[in-house]
Every structure is written in structure tokens, then in C-alpha cells.
């Protein structure tokens, strides 16, 4: 209850009876597991263990406790995963010990993905759960389906990339490129997960000073700004929108939206792109994909205090024309500050193109967000010529 009240104070909307919000808020992302800290989740699990003992002489009470215990066991794992991701995303790396912790958190994330799959199979849907009608019902929640399949969360890649990039940059400066490369080589040699092997090798390349080259044209909108907005904001029409990427609007008649090149809120250089009062919009930039290669994708985004949801995704287009999502992340509500989101992904074997996307949803009349410094490039393989920073 204390965790829930704290969550309401952070995310709820003003109300005469106190801050409140629908309990479904964040229900399709791991952000929902922010409600409890790992320590609180452990205390709750311990309380359920005590309740199991206390209820052993009352069959009905014991069944009720057992149902809650089984459900909460999955939540306990998800809480651990969320906070490991949060540490990777937000904690600075200023020591070798912190670099080791980033590696440990990355491994913990992947291990928890496997544990959640096993837990659902054995405890929530296993033979011992079939006596409970609750566990026989259809489960279509996308997070649950992904957990059951053992698929990594779409947010996981952003967290691992952020934590390992910070560790690689620190090690390169602190112990030098050669020693840092050897440090990562030891990490790679002991890793069996293909996902983590690719992530650790990218960190090794970064420590050596080998970085991806941005393949996007005018990623900071400087050429566009100098041409169209030398002295102020310029509202892009349908033709000029193609210069910032593939822009698609759904139900534009519901909001009098504007897409603007502006020189007032740039993160770097002189210009940025602003989205205002959009009901539902998607901006995409893409490059041709080399199957099996590693790519780095990212952007900077800022929003004001107005309502709105902002989401970043990296998708791959396959040879058959279908799409698959490789990574996704919802922008946290942090008004008036630039936030950087970067992720490394591996192009599927049948990929033809990779897309970096920004989704803008449900902005109100006063809502604005700014976009700057997009990046989408192929990470050099270990055999590629080094591209020093």
C-alpha cells in the first residue's frame, strides 16, 4: 500500500480527494513494476510465506493465499527486472566496480527473462495450478505472452546499451583502450548468451574507440533549418515533412497539430523539430539493413508539462514485407529536459531495412515535444577497420 501511494504521488493527476490515476496506467510496459522497490517486493514475498504457514489449518484461507502467492511470484521477478533496467539506464559508471555491476545487471536481466518463462510454465500454468479456475482463463496481455515465450522485454535493449556504453566509455578513459579491450574480452569469453555476447562485443569495440557511423542525412535538421527557418519557426507542410522523415498522422482532424522546425529549443546546433497537439503521429527514418549486423540507433527528445505519450522503437522490415519490433521504450515523464535514448540491435537474417521511429500520442492543446540528433548506423564488426572517435 505504501508503494502504491508513493506511485500515485509520482504519476497521479490532481483530484479533490488526493492524486489518482487509473490502475491500468503503464499496464502495457514494465513501468508498472515501479510501484514496488525490490526491498518492498521481498518483504511482500516474505509476508506471503508467513501467511502460507499461518493458513495451513484453514483450507479456504490456504487456497486464497496460494493463489496470491503464485501470482505475486511473477510480479516479484518483474520488479527485480524493472529495477535492474533502471540501474543500467540511470546510474553513472565511475569505477571498475560500477562497470562490473553494469555487466552483472545485464546478465541478471537475461536470467530473469528465462526465470519468468519457467515460472509461468511451472507455477502459474503448471499441473499444480489446474485446480484453480482463475489460472484456466485466457491470457492475452502482451507482456504476459512475451514473458511466457521467454522473449526479452522490448525495453531491455535500451537499458543494456545505456549501461554497457557507460561502462565502456569509463574503462576507455580510466585504464586505456588496450586494457579496456582486454577487460571486455574476458567478459565475452565467459558469456554463453548470444544476446549478451553481441552486447559485450559492442562494448569492447567502444572501449577500443571503434564507433558506428551515422547513416542518416541531416540528423540534427541543421540543413533544413538554415533553408526554411533562418529567422524563426517554420511550420512544415506535407511536402517539407518528407525532409525530416516519413511522417504519418492518424485522425489529424481531432487536433489542429503543428510540425515545426524551430531555432528556440535545439539540443545541439541551432535547430530542432517540434510536434504540437498531435492526436497520433509516427515519424520514421530508415536505412538499408545488412542481415546479421549490429546497429546503433538513438535520438534526443524533450517534452513540456502538457499531457502526451512519447515512445521510441526500432523495427525491421523483412523480405516478405512484414515488420518485427527489435526494441521499444516509452519516454519517462520528465518535463523540460532533454533525454537521450540509444539502443543496439542485431538485424534479423531476413531483414531488408531498419527503422528508427518516434510515436507521439494524445497531446493536448498545450503539449509540445522536441526532437534532435537522430542516429542510425551499423556498428563495425571486430574485423572492420577501426573508426576512432
Brief summary:
The chain is an alpha+beta fold and about 400 residues long.
Notes on the protein architecture:
It is built from 10 helices and 11 strands. 40% of the residues lie in helices and 21% in strands. Residues 384-389 have low confidence and may be disordered. It has 389 residues and is α+β, with helices and mostly antiparallel strands.
Keyword list:
389 residues; alpha+beta; single chain; 21% strand
Shape call? globular
Rounded to the nearest angstrom, the radius of gyration is: 23 Å
Give the terminus-to-terminus CA distance: 49 Å
Q: What is the number of E strands?
A: 11
Helical amount: 25-40%
Helix/strand class: alpha+beta
Strand content: 15-25%
Number of helices: 10
Write out the strand line-up for the largest beta sheet, numbering strands in chain order.
1-3-4-11-6-9
Low-confidence stretches: 384-389
Mean pLDDT reading: 92
Along the chain, the helix and strand elements come as: HHHHHHHHHEHEEEEEEEEEE
Largest sheet: 6 strands, antiparallel
Provide the fold topology:
Blueprint (H helix, E strand, L loop, with lengths): L1 H10 L26 H17 L4 H32 L5 H29 L17 H8 L6 H20 L1 H13 L4 H14 L14 H7 L5 E2 L2 H4 L4 E4 L8 E5 L9 E5 L3 E9 L5 E10 L5 E10 L4 E8 L8 E8 L4 E11 L6 E11 L11
Antiparallel strand pairs: 1-3, 2-5, 3-4, 4-11, 5-10, 6-9, 6-11, 7-8, 7-10
Helix pairs in contact: 2-3, 3-4, 3-6, 4-6, 6-7, 6-8, 7-8
